[in-house]
Write a structure and sequence with these properties.
Layout lengths: L1 E4 L5 E3 L25 E6 L16 H10 L5 H16 L10 E6 L3
Antiparallel strand pairs: 1-2, 1-3, 3-4
């Protein structure tokens, strides 16, 4: 996942250290907590940044981060729509090889 501060001044990549959810129902996941300031949290499957064009170039995390920053003013659904629009344009007619799931959460101050 990626966290982007509300003022777009800082971003942080968030990574887990366990296996993906749903792989093994008996897996004991590591718990981790962090208080984040107001901003946007993007959670996605690797199929998003690993989406490939017909030349096998990946969409990449850098493009995802750039899109997130460029659309930080938008609502969560608008951000998701913009990301999927850009991934579709990038991949064009290339075969979809993995799932693409995106969750956007706006963290407000309260």
């Amino acid at each position: 996942g990626v966290f982007l501060a509300s003022d777009v001044s800082a971003s942080k990549e968030l990574q887990g250290h366990d296996i993906p959810l749903g792989v093994d129902a008996r897996w004991q996941y590591t718990q981790f907590a962090e208080v984040l300031p107001p901003g946007i949290l993007l959670l996605a499957t690797d199929g998003l940044w690993e989406a490939m064009d017909s030349g096998k170039a990946m969409f990449g995390k850098e493009r995802v981060n750039t899109l997130l920053a460029a659309n930080a003013h938008a609502g969560p659904q608008q951000i998701v729509d913009e990301i999927f629009k850009e991934v579709k344009a990038f991949t064009a007619t290339a075969e979809v090889e993995d799932d693409r799931t995106v969750v956007i959460v706006r963290l407000d101050q309260d």
